[in-house]
Amino acid sequence: MRLLSVFGCAFALASCSSPDLVTLHSVEASPAALARDAEALLEFECHEALALLEEHARRAESAARAAAVDSPAPSFDVAERIGWLCRLVFVDAEGRPVRAPMRGGVSLPYLSMPAESWPHFPLAVEGGCIFVLAEGLTLAGFPEPMSDYFTELRKVARKTAVRYAQPSRQECERAFEQLLASARWRSIRWSHESPNFAYAYHEESVRQEVLRRF
């Protein structure tokens, strides 16, 4: 049954045009590009969108193995960005964005950014705009295989009811100002120090990370 479902998805995807997911093959990850890619995936049935993203993950893993021998690694982690798209497109049975693949952490004060306030972490959706707060993973240990991640999603994921329009730069600027003024942003603790634990992040660096993508 597993083989039949995979071949069925492959046949379905081969018989229709696959979307050009800019986020997965270009350095660009602007709010407009993320909205365009998420919306393109939402045009597929849930199982088709999952199969398409899993195929991108397989190709990225093959390319990464080849790059380790023949050429420099890409300037971004495709698997990380696949996780972004999954969190924008799929929700669990309770309507919450599916979890991200366990492949490391980003440079954000996540302890003061609970999932209730930041459901798409490390993305933020505000005023219809999708903002990348941080990119680049730090891992102590082994990353979760993307095949395992998609095995779980096939069991729990369904498409979100949210739809994404491509925002203009002016709309992004207004939405980002709304985010900066929001209670969830003001609740972020950018530094902390205790006898057993301490961290310090720079709010301005995160702001610039968002702004450079407009």
Overview of the structural elements:
This protein has 214 residues and is mostly helical. It has one domain. It has nine helices and six strands, in the order αααααβββαβααββα. It has helices at residues 2-14, 22-25, 31-42, 46-70, 78-89, 146-156, 169-181, 183-186, 203-211, and strands at 90-91, 123-126, 129-132, 158-159, 191-193, 198-200. The strands form three sheets. Strands 1-4 form a two-stranded antiparallel ribbon. Strand 2 and strand 3 form a beta hairpin. Helix 4 (46-70) packs antiparallel against helix 5 (78-89) and helix 4 runs antiparallel to helix 6 (146-156). It is globular. 28% of the residues are buried. Residues 1-15 have low confidence and may be disordered.
Measured as a percent range, the helix fraction is 40-55%
What is the domain tally?
1
Structural class: mainly alpha
Order of strands in the sheet with most strands: 1-4
> Could you tell me the radius of gyration in angstroms?
18 Å
Number of β-strand runs: 6
Shape: globular
**Strand proportion:** 5-15%
Strand count, sense and barrel status of the largest sheet are:
2 strands, antiparallel
Low-confidence sequence ranges: 1-15
Instruction: State the end-to-end distance.
Output: 45 Å
Arithmetic mean pLDDT: 90
Give me the strand/helix succession: HHHHHEEEHEHHEEH
Total count of helical runs of at least 4 residues: 9
Q: Could you give the topology of this structure?
A:
Elements: H1 2-14, H2 22-25, H3 31-42, H4 46-70, H5 78-89, E1 90-91, E2 123-126, E3 129-132, H6 146-156, E4 158-159, H7 169-181, H8 183-186, E5 191-193, E6 198-200, H9 203-211
Antiparallel strand pairs: 1-4, 2-3, 5-6
Helix pairs in contact: 1-4, 3-5, 4-5, 4-6
